[in-house]
Amino acid sequence: MSIETARAAKHPTSIAVVNYKGGVGKTTITYLLGLFLSLKTGRRTLLIDIDAQCSLTLAVGLEPEVQSESGINVYNLVRPEAWPRIRDTSFKDFVKAIPGLPAPLYIIPGGFEVEDLDIEIVETIVKERERSKNEFFLYCRQLLNAFDDFDYILIDCPPNKMYLTQGMLRASSFFIPVTIPDRISIYGMPRLLRWVDMIESSERPHMLGYVLNAANRTGGSPGGKVNSQQRAENELASNLLERLSRYEKLMMENNPCLGSVPRLDVIARFLGNEKDVRLDFARHTSGQPTIDDCMIGIADNVLKRISKYAGA
Q1: Are the CB atoms for 146 and 107 separated by under 8 Å?
Q2: Burial 226-254 (b: 16+ CB within 10 A, else e)
Q3: What count of Cα atoms within 13 Å lies in the side-chain half-sphere of residue 4?
Q4: b/e code 122-150 from CB counts within 10 Å (16+ = b)
Q5: Does the pLDDT of residue 31 top 70, yes or no?
Q6: What per-residue confidence (pLDDT) applies to 6?
Q7: How far apart are CA 164 and CA 119, in angstroms?
Q8: Phi and psi for 154 in degrees, rounded to 5?
Q9: How far is residue 119 from each of residues 77, 113, 115, 134, 259, measured CA to CA in Å?
Q10: CA 99 to CA 305: how far, in whole Å?
Q11: Which of 34, 123, 232, 310 gives a 20 to 30 Å CA spacing to 299?
């Protein structure tokens, strides 16, 4: 793949899952959305774990220590030594199939070494003056383009502005913020959007909408949320609609929310690698929407908005 090709286009269905706030469920939504996109379309979906905590890697049943020993992890794909060797890299060797699922879902495992990547990048830029962070950003785009045999790519991003987060966000065609509907969790959302707005228009990803995670539902009305969460959600939607461009509002039909996922123990068990509990995703709890209903709705909205952006 030539540099010109990498500059000309992004992977058309690459999605960065982001938020400045930690603990809001980015890993949860990355995994579940990837699973339901694969289940719904029957197409190959790739998850990329770029968080040094490696939570997504653990959730799918892989041990980060083992991946580090084998060298099969995202760190070895993105460290400075890899940039000039892009044409010699066998990217497919870094992909692992996720077993135990009725869907073509794959992952590039995370690496604990990612936490020191910023130091390595800065040292490389200082020591080798002809290199720059823009080389790294371009490399991230080339990396995602190398996986053109995957129909969807979802990137689980850490809650920081490290070079790898910036690079993957710039390299992605779209982004999805994830938050819990409470005042503390939604507080950083405007800051995240300001950061995205500062990215050059040629590199800036399109927002597909946000996902609300860990919603505490009431028993009174189907799909209803407790009052404090409903107030937080209303505040978030109002603030986002003020910030979004007319074009983005059109793509989202003036509704920036892709959907919400309830706070249920079965999700925690699934993330604990109990894959057989997926059958419980179809079970109703207190008359509320099932996890299947919620995630199918979110996946439908994601596919619909990707299609709208592509046709605009």
Answers
A1: no
A2: eeebeebbeebbeebeeebeeebeebbee
A3: 0
A4: eebbeeeeebeeebbbbbbbbbbbbbeeb
A5: yes
A6: 43
A7: 12
A8: -120, 130
A9: 16, 11, 9, 16, 38
A10: 29
A11: 232
Which has the higher per-residue pLDDT, 297 or 222? Answer: 297
Q: How far apart are CA 229 and CA 233, in angstroms?
A: 6
Q: CB under 8 Å to 287, separation ≥6 — which residues?
A: 219, 222
Separation of alpha carbons 141 and 83, rounded Å: 11
Do strands 105-108 and 152-156 pair parallel, antiparallel, or not at all (unpaired)? unpaired
CB 206 within 8 A of CB 248: yes
Residue 147 pLDDT level (bands cut at 50, 70, 90): very high
Listed in order, strand segments (DSSP E) in the chain are: 14-18, 45-49, 96-97, 105-108, 152-156, 174-179, 206-207, 210-215, 257-262
- Rounded distance between C-alpha atoms, residue 260 and residue 262, angstroms: 7
Write the single-letter amino acid at 197.
Answer: D
- pLDDT reading at 171 higher than 70: yes
Does the pLDDT value for residue 223 go beyond 70?
A: no
**Residue 202: partners with Cβ closer than 8 Å, 6 or more residues away:** none
Average pLDDT over residues 69-88: 93
Is residue 309's pLDDT more than 60?
yes
What is the reported pLDDT for 1?
38
Q: Which amino acid would we find at residue 159?
A: P
CA dihedral 249, 299, 109, 8 (to 10 degrees): -50
pLDDT band at 4 (very low <50, low <70, confident <90, very high): very low
Rg of the chain taking only CA atoms, in angstroms: 19
Domain extent listing, the chain: 3-311
pLDDT at residue 179 in the model? 94
CATH class of 3-311: alpha beta
Round to whole Å and give the CA distance between 293 and 141.
Answer: 34
CA angle 143, 303, 177 (to 5 degrees): 65
